[in-house]
Amino acid sequence: MADQIRPLQPGEPAPSFALAAANLEGTISLADLRGRPFLIGFFRGLHCPFCRRQVEQLAGLHPALRSAGIETVAVINTPVDRARLYFRHRPTPVTLLCDPDCRTHRAFGVPRGEFLPEGSSERPEWPHRATMAQFEAARINPAGVFPEPLQPMEANVVLNASDGFELVEADKAILADHGTQLVGHFLVDATGIVGWAQIEARDGPNGLCTFPAAAQILAAAKNLGR
Hints:
It contains 8 helices and 7 strands; from the N terminus they run E-E-H-E-H-E-H-E-H-H-H-H-E-E-H. The protein is α/β, with parallel strands linked by helices. The protein has one domain: 3-Layer(aba) Sandwich (Glutaredoxin), CATH 3.40.30. The protein has a 7-stranded mixed β-sheet with strand order 2-1-5-4-3-6-7. It is globular. It starts with 17 loop residues before the first strand and ends with a helix. GO terms for molecular function: antioxidant activity; oxidoreductase activity. It comes from Sinorhizobium americanum.
């Protein structure tokens, strides 16, 4: 899979992929999904509480999407053994695929942020080239889950503590290697063509951890193929 330098747009073909499944046997590929529309979300690893919550939201949407003929797929930046252990205790109808290297994220053009070195004269361009000051100044409160907006890393710590979630070594390694990976959602039609795309924090770091609402996803699904 070649890296896509920008997110795929409606009208463009989805790239081929084959990933290990966390809640099914074997692997799932684009060829396996072809012939029916599907929603595919690309997430950070299990260390991200917002991503875990979005997978739960997709599980809640699964019946409505399935009744519309749309499959639901989540690609998680987590090793398959770790994902299988976690979701064994939290079963979900969403098809869970594992990409610990984020290769499929990149093939769909989901950005990964990079921080400029301190003192760099290079012009910041969010999210591809950001300053640490930009990130540290960000304040988020997706869906009003906090009494007041928090810095993103602080928000992660608060929610992980609230969930009773403790990072294991596999989570820490993914966080160290892919902590700046952004999240993307795509609706793909039965022929493999992207019909809708949504990328996290397109307008700046204050949009981090804000993902499409259920109503937005359902509206996009209703319009798929029109």
